[in-house]
Amino acid sequence: MIMTQSTRIETILPFYLKGTTVKIPESRVRIGAKAYPAPCVIDAINYMYPNLYGRVYCEGPPCEAIDTVELIQHIREYMRRVSKDVTYDMSYADDALSFNDACTIRWLHGGSSSFTLLMRNESGLFVRKVAVRSGVEGNGSEKLIREHSYVQNTHLAEYYLPVSELTIDNGLNMVYCDMPFYEGGDMAAALINGFDTDILFSFLETLFTSGFCGSYKSLAISESRNSFYSNYTHRFENRINPILDHIEFKSLLKKGSIHINGKRYANPAIIMREISTSPGLFEIFKQRVSVPCIHGDLTLLNMVANDKNDIKLIDPRGYAGGFDPLYDLGKLMFSSSGFSSIIKGHVKSRQRNGVFYVSIYDDRELTAFRSQLMDFIRNNKSLDMMRALEPYFEQRVLLFEAIHYFADVLFRYHTDKGIENALSCFLIGTIKLNDLYASVKGKEAAWL
Ligand SMILES: Nc1ncnc2c1ncn2[C@@H]1O[C@H](COP(=O)(O)OP(=O)(O)O)[C@@H](O)[C@H]1O
Ligand SMILES: [Mg+2]
Asked: If you measure from the C-alpha of residue 8 to the centroid of ligand 2, how many angstroms do you get, rounded to a whole number?
């Protein structure tokens, strides 16, 4: 099915839902009274319904920055009208993404709802990571190309699972590469299945020692201000504001406090405002140095293990340059305090009469790992330099941990079925941020 110039969204989406592949020429797509560049509309559809990647596509470069929030709201409204229940169709992935005599065994779910597939060919099992166009928040082709290039070129290659050459299919705007399958799965699963934490900590120790390689750059005050804004303030607002209008979050964010698991917590937006405007808290939470980026999304879900207890990293940010060392340590904390379980659908949250409940700390092994991790951050020699340069490293790691939860709310809202995972991220983030704030508030003057 090929569309003509200035296609109306109403014309495209029914085909999309029926499963017919639609090719749109490089033109504009009209939604209501407005016309958007077709590539932007395609990216927005793929953003919201990533499990249907590639079914609607068009030629042309990735989309320029436009008001995607408005566009997404339009598409979401329209989809709700035409289809009460959009079905997530796995058979499409099987057909379109199985090639070269390989068949899909199952879909491996990570944080970005990408197409990471466990496949088999005549040589056995392997993993194929596929991306189409811009995907979710840039997690599509551009991300996979960056990720692939990083793994091939980094001096830390020995810590990463090797990847095959990247195949680029310009027709479908699709890229993919293959890698070995590590049968122990990701580290969250491996820990729950009894993986020895000593092996993991010695892997982390060598990783940080080689990764930071004794080099760092001190930040000027203006750089610290910029990173404060982009890492915390803007990241929080940017991921929470787009959902303020949605009925499920409206009541949550309008109030001064939120009742969770029988306790009252301050609204996180109020705490974030306080943190962003208090000079004393800026001194505590500001980034002082940058170090080489060794991963950029160092969650337990992005480490895999085989049956010989060999650990490898996967899915890096694909960025080589100066990076906040506490960011990735916060990612490790965040992925062991509930996030990995949220991704696997093991965390439940609900609301009854304005009171919220969320089940956390459900995996004993992950909770134990998290407390050992804090000891590692406080004491391990691979982090000596980081601790000397970042005196408030503990508070900063905990702030990152909380912010990583908020940063994932929008993503989970758009990509997971229902709002439960988005709500879980919001509620756990709120608890973490409140606990941290209570531990620093009023103590700034004495500490500094
Ligand atoms: N080579 C592999 N061996 C074993 N499991 C893997 C492998 N690659 C990915 N996985 C599993 O698939 C998940 C998603 O893969 P990942 O590349 O991290 O995608 P995403 O970008 O969606 O996070 C991982 O969290 C892990 O559980
Ligand atoms: Mg991942």
From this structure: 35
Question: Do 225 and 396 form a contact (C-beta atoms < 8 A)?
Answer: no
Under a CB-based contact definition with an 8 Å cutoff, are residues 425 and 408 in contact? Answer: yes
pLDDT at 310: 98
pLDDT in tens, 155-187: 999 999 999 999 887 655 568 899 999 999 999
Q: Is the pLDDT of residue 245 over 80?
A: no
Over 60: is that where the pLDDT of 99 sits?
yes
pLDDT at position 359 over 60: yes
Which pLDDT value is given to residue 205? 98
- The residue nearest atom 26 of ligand 1, judged by CA position, is 186
CB-CB contact of 60 with 38 (8 Å): yes
Query: How many angstroms is it from 126 CA to the middle of ligand 1?
Result: 11
Structure tokens at 15: 């085909």
Probe residue for ligand 1, chosen from 129, 315, 317, 346 as the CB with the greatest number of ligand atoms within 8 Å: 315
* Distance of CA 95 from the midpoint of ligand 2 (Å): 23
Same domain? 262 vs 121: no
Nearest-Å Rg of the Cα atoms of the chain is 22
- Provide the number of structural domains found in the chain: 3
pLDDT at residue 13, rounded to an integer: 61
The range of the structural domain enclosing residue 43 comes to 7-82
- Alpha carbons 400 and 236: distance in angstroms, whole number: 11
Instruction: List CB contacts of 212: < 8 A, sequence separation 6 or more.
Output: 291, 292, 294, 325, 382, 385, 386
- What mean pLDDT comes out for the span 103-129? 81
Q: Which residues neighbour ligand 2 (ion) by CB within 5 Å?
A: 110-111, 302, 315
What residues line ligand 1, using a CB cutoff of 6 Å? 108, 110-112, 114, 116, 127, 129, 161, 179-182, 185-186, 301-302, 304, 314-315
Verify that 222 and 255 share a domain, yes or no. yes
The answer to the question of residue 2 being in a domain is no
Residue 249 has a pLDDT of 77
